[in-house]
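Annex B. Sample input.
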Amino acid sequence: ITTLEKIVIQVGRTGILTPVALLQPVNVGGVTVSRATLHNADEIHKKDVRPGDTVRVVRAGDVIPEIQERVKQPGKKRQKPFSMPDKCPACSSKVYREGAYYLCPAGLACRPQLVGRIIHYGSREALDITGLGQKTTEDLARKELVGDIADLYRLSVEDLLKLDGFAQKSATQLHQAIQDTRNPRLDRFLYALGIRHVGQRMAHILARRYGSLEKLKNADRDELEQIPEVGPEIALSVSRFFRDPENRQVLNRLEKAGVQVHSMPAGKTALPLSEKTFVFTGSLKNYTRSEAENRVEELGGRAASSVSGNTDYLVKGEDPGRKLQDARQEGVEIIGEDR
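Annex B, continued. Sample output.
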């Protein structure tokens, strides 16, 4: 139990404005917590939490700090109810509401969105640009060395030497890491673009369905909705992304900068792991969990998070967890990562 001192707004890479609670530091399950997500305006109003309130904090899933409820204090005068801002706190653009969320429409003109998109583009699960972290990306944006992801490929070693803490070796390494991503596979490139509602699995589904970036760019919403795994929200988000003039311009700039996206076999061509479901447990030697799951999906299989009667294989690493026992009970074949 602690005090909610202030509610601030955080702008994400997709433009969503997320309210965050700044708390009087408190120990929760052995971890000192000073910030907690409030999700959205509806959640704040539902829980009726305001700055100055005493609140109960939990770690959702034992990881993410979250305000569970307000602890009532009879007789204590409370502040006015919190309301979302009319303008983006980062760039002052007028925000709009979409469902439960408030969004900033400024896109790359809004620095937090620009920084977030570049960090996502270079993340390990996307194009894996080693050295392109939060601090470096913020410095690139602050010094106006990048205005969108295409500008990454125009950076020289001399440009990177202008960044705080960079010397010849680190600048050369980052420059090479960026150049090494000029020929990405379609599914990883789609995920790297940060299209709303398109995670790694959906990026792979779209890449396998269309085969090439050009075909996907020309797909309309109705056509996308014909794909079994694609719902109305995803179809709208994807079609809207590729229709947007600014996004089209960035894609053209990427092409001119020498980025050539590798096509994938389209349609329902049989792959080695087609129709097979895998679950992983324990630490793997040669892959992170995410890399292993991506590899399974590249080969046509499905990576699930829990064991069931539909699981074909459990891949066992070091220090396996409860899933090993579940697999034995379900009669699932257990294999090692070398298999």
